[in-house]
Amino acid sequence: MLTGKHILLIIGGGIAAFKSLDLIRRLREQGAHVTPVLTQAGEAFVTPLSVSALAGQKVYRDLFDLTDEAEMGHIQLSRVADLVVVAPATADLMAKMAGGLANDLASTLLLATDTPVLVAPAMNVRMWQHPSTQRNLATLKADGIGFIGPNEGDMACGEYGPGRMAEPLEIVSAVEARLTAGPLSGKRIVVTSGPTHEPIDPVRYIANRSSGAQGTAIARALSALGAHVVFITGPADVPPPDGVEVIRVQTAEQMQAAVEASLPADAGVFAAAVADWKIASANQHKLKKSKDGLPQLEFAENPDILRQVARMDKGRPHLVVGFAAETNDVVENATAKRTRKGCDWIVANDVSEASGVMGGSENTVIVIDGNGTESWPTLTKPEVARRLADRIANALT
What we know:
Elements: E1 6-11, H1 17-29, E2 33-38, H2 48-55, H3 66-71, H4 74-77, E3 83-89, H5 91-99, H6 105-112, E4 117-121, H7 125-129, H8 131-142, E5 146-147, E6 151-154, E7 160-164, H9 168-179, E8 188-193, E9 198-199, E10 205-206, H10 213-224, E11 228-233, E12 245-248, H11 252-262, E13 267-270, E14 277-279, E15 299-301, H12 305-310, E16 319-326, H13 330-341, E17 345-350, E18 362-363, E19 365-369, E20 372-375, E21 379-380, H14 381-396
Parallel strand pairs: 1-2, 1-3, 3-4, 4-5, 8-11, 8-13, 11-12, 13-16, 16-17
Antiparallel strand pairs: 6-7, 9-10, 14-15, 17-19, 18-21, 19-20
Helix pairs in contact: 1-2, 1-9, 5-8, 9-10, 10-14
């Protein structure tokens, strides 16, 4: 809860500004006081009246407003909050922050504040990936600025990739993590994510379609609740979240070793799509076409990381959560997997091509435990992660 906490919310320009209205509502539901600052560009997407109505506060807009300066002043405004939140933070606003510019109210407040700052970027994927934006990101992180997102998904411009502003509930969780201890404070949780790549030769490998989006969202949600998260990720499309301990791996055997080295832990969430098989003896040189026909590849089983951890005699995490990616008979197959592996919960979903889950922005899951099944509606992956993190917190506290 954020009862009595003061949030200075800076709303930048961009289509994601419409989410800031829901963010204000969500923050106030948690008891926070929200003082909104609306940039000139932000006014192109949301009106001062709608922002003020939801915040129950005056909207600050102009650096040289004589009334505002007489009543509070921009220096005082920048320092009375417990946290400054920038949502959405455009590429332009991030560049101003990194360069120390102060040519409007928002950038001046950010330069003048001695309060912690949390930034939720939102921009086109190419803008986010541009070297200048990545340099600004590195500079701001080095300056101690906190980040939440951006998420991967469909853009208003029709493109797809990282650049979507984090969902309001994700930002609220990040705010709570900054300002409160969180229900998972002091807990250590291992999260695996993404695919594994099993080499055939130096240039080819066995893989799957996992983007790592769901595992990344889970790690972020658990961290927001105060957990120390060890995030073990294969070569995923989605970058790892901020504020977690990241271990990068390629193969199932490397992931197994990283998990073993990260124990003991209070919980393990095994969301990675680990390849079931590998090439028994990967070729040291690139395979060439031959007049003798197709190459003969001998397969071998990969380690079963979930089963190994779930059936440990000593040092087993209090809670072991597995994932079951199924294409048919989802509940039946996942229930059998839970029994076979020995884990406490299985989070099952349909990953058939028609579902759009693999690489998509939404997920429909069924949580199976010793008490039965719990079906969740179709949610965004961050919302699934938040629900799962809350469920884990209830189990561990």
